# Entry
Amino acid sequence: METRARLSLAVEIVVGIVVVLIVAVVAITLVGRSLPVGHVASRTATFRRPPEEVWAAINDPALLSSRGVGDVKFETIESVPPKLLVRRVVGEKDFGGTWTCDIASSPDGSTLTITENGEIYNGFFRFVSRFIIGHHRTIDGTMAALRKRFAGS
# Structure
């Protein structure tokens, strides 16, 4: 009889955990759906390199793969070397948008501003991006990769 009671308690605990998880996913999705689809995130950093070097770095496929983005495909919609680069995400069903990279000469080298005009279509992912990961994560990863790249040369 004692084994049956323990088994019953274990089943109740598992069912309770599953119910809590389902409620959490539904709540996250509902909150996410109430958030705006679009967002703007921007960061600025100064590098002790001329604009031409920063331009070359942001166009290097090795940098794109090192920033923690995965296999996101994009197209260049505007390119004014070495000052302006605008890319649009293509082929994604859960998110989209553009990245604008503005490079300006500065007394210390170059100032790079990356602005993401993003859209997240899935409510669950919208919640995660807004409250857990943060809209700036990919930009921060790119800036960190640039700092690392320029520190080594």
Summary: The first helix runs from residue 2 to 34.
